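Form P-L/3: holo structure prediction, ligand iron/sulfur cluster.
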Amino acid sequence: MVPTIPAKSASAKTATPDAVRPHTGESLLALKRRAGKINRQLAKAYPYAHAELDFRNAFELVVATVLSAQTTDVRVNQTTPALFARYPDARALAEANVAELETMIQPTGFFRAKTRSLISLATRIVDEYDGVVPGRLDDLVTLAGVGRKTANVVLGNAFGIPGITVDTHFIRLAQRFGWTESKDPVRIEADVGGLIPKAEWTMLSHRVVFHGRRVCHARKPACGACPVATLCPSYGEGETDPVKAKKLLKYELAPGNEDLLARMLGDVSRAAEYRREAQLLARQGVSSGPEPGPAAPGTDLP
Ligand code: SF4
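OUTPUT (holo model):
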């Protein structure tokens, strides 16, 4: 596959709306159009993309997201069923025994800091918000262990308020797509927010993370098997030979998992169930990759 846009360059010096973008050589309009095409193409490739943390309400999601710092979503999903059975709401968690809570969440790592955050945030939710997780970003970021990333996860997935979740995968892919030149998550959120309609923000975040975990890996992106290769200025950063690139794909896209992929594409409503199957296969070494990497660079960890 050959990309249809120029590779990244550093030619222009201005940044007015009609100016050529220094990093991709495109006008803002062209960049917006290309970003929209990438989003639509990713939607076709991953119609089953969704939040990979298991939760039933805003309280569970905020707890699970705090736990996800510096660990995998798989690990968090293994830990939270017992945790939520023991502490079903903010009032119960606010009164948790520290040693008991530390033991329960120990598998997620940084368990002492996370225990402090969880008890503190639960106490604040009880004291300031009558036990109900607030649905505003400005309130959420005042909770211990909750930064913009976690707040946007909660807003987008528990409250239906569009949010861009800038985690380690999103940062890498936004840069490779030429959507931003920044390394600052807040700036990246603003840059991408200016390219993609707000209603798409939450699903865009899921799609980009899915793509990062399966195809556009940090060290060996599978460019030769990438559904957005013709739209990506970083095409060629990874393996371009289609046969070799296919071997780099992970989870349901990995060679040998075609039946699983067909089922995920055919029954999107059961995608979470199938995803667990894919993760189990991955852990057993059937697919070509390890568990998904940490959901975030840990910036929300206290
Ligand atoms: S895999 Fe290659 S072509 Fe695809 S998005 Fe990543 S860098 Fe671009």
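COMMENT: The radius of gyration is 20 Å.
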